[in-house]
Amino acid sequence: MTKPRITDDHLIDSVAEALQYISYYHPPDFISAMAEAYELEESESARNAIRQILMNSRMAAIGQRPICQDTGSVNVFLDIGVQAPLGWTRTPQDLIDEATRRAYALSVNPLRASIVTDPLGARRNTRDNTPAMIQTEFVAGESVSVSVSAKGGGSENKAKLAVLNPSDSVADWVVDTVAKLGAGWCPPGMIGLGVGGSVDKAMAMAKRALNLPIDISELRRRGAETAEDRLRLELYHRLNALGIGAQGLGGLTAVLDVKVLSFPTHAASLPVALIPNCAATRHLHFTLDGSDPATFTPPDLSLWPDLGDCAVTGRRVDLDALDEAMLASFSPGDTLLLSGRLYTGRDAAHRRMIEGLAKGEPLPVDLRGRAIYYVGPVDPVGDEVIGPAGPTTSTRMDKFTAPLLAASGLKIMIGKAERGPEAIAAIREHGAVYLIAVGGAAYLVSKAIKRAKPVAYLELGMEAIYEIEVEDMPVTVAVDSRGQSIHHSGPARWRRG
Asked: Which residues contact 414 (CB under 8 A, 6 or more apart)?
């Protein structure tokens, strides 16, 4: 009897559905691990951040809207059984790119297109998030195993690779590396390691490792059985002892699990690749055998912990009535609820503003005494004012900060992760402040935005400058007007050992 063939449509339909599914559903093991971290956390700032991530996760699951505004690059691992009854008429790249276009343009839940072509030149957005990043292997068997993930840029940008001496300590290198990553990878999350092989093999293993289930609690109960197990346990304890905490605010948990894959390597080499996964961990696995496209069951809402009232509490701040005394009263770690008018602006908008200033041109908007939010939102649907609108990594704006503060009178910047020495010096000099919204809580943040309209650089798409009005937008003071940073003091306070 002839076996049913795995068709083009089986792969396209399955990948497209998986990409939509992971845009709004966290994996159940991630929810459980975050809930456990929330219960154990002793740092008030970190606990508040984890709470917002869990609240956002449940809201995204109910509303079927993206967990994070950065809906990621598409990463697919294809393990093709050598005896699989393939009926494909096009390449896997063509098929998965078609699935990506379909998923990212779905009208009821459009996803943000972030992929640019001509990376060394014009860097034009492809507008459909293609091409996907695909790793293909041929394996024993009669089916096709598919792992689909959507990898955010903030955590991807923190990937590291080293070729160690065979006698070097992998654990020491990893601890030293993670200690220097900053918070741009949006912890709590996963650390994926690839050890051995060649440099390209190590990187592929590190990426694949991030799709493995979170099972560190089980490993801790049963104990290590392999060298990989021993490395995982050592790193789980040592990395969390760094005191990084959620969002880098200082606390007990930044790493939910450490996953390790290894491969034989040259006797003179020890390649080690490290890739973190953020609080918007998104992946799904399925198998195609020719019978039908894959189907996916939504997680039960009982998986999420009962957090009571979804309101975030904090000091209310009127963005339309900022003054020096108010700004000076903020301290690192304070939770604020912002209301009033502010502007959005990311890398491209900042570059355009600074280039214009150099030519003697006025800024396209009046930032004097105002706030700017580093965000590139998802397109709205239905009656939404704006789509999920979480913060982007602020360090990318550091080189623009001093000239913009000097020229504009800007007083508040909002993003995620730490600021570098140059930006902190400029903040202190100009009496400004830097606030962070929780990375991985984009849908929650969007609910605080009551009005939005593009006002400048409209051709930049999601990187255009918007004027938005917010009501009780939750943020944390990260750098105060004296240049004191929670990303310095928080981890220092919670570091152990």
From this structure: 338, 342, 371, 372, 373, 374, 391, 434, 435, 436, 437, 475
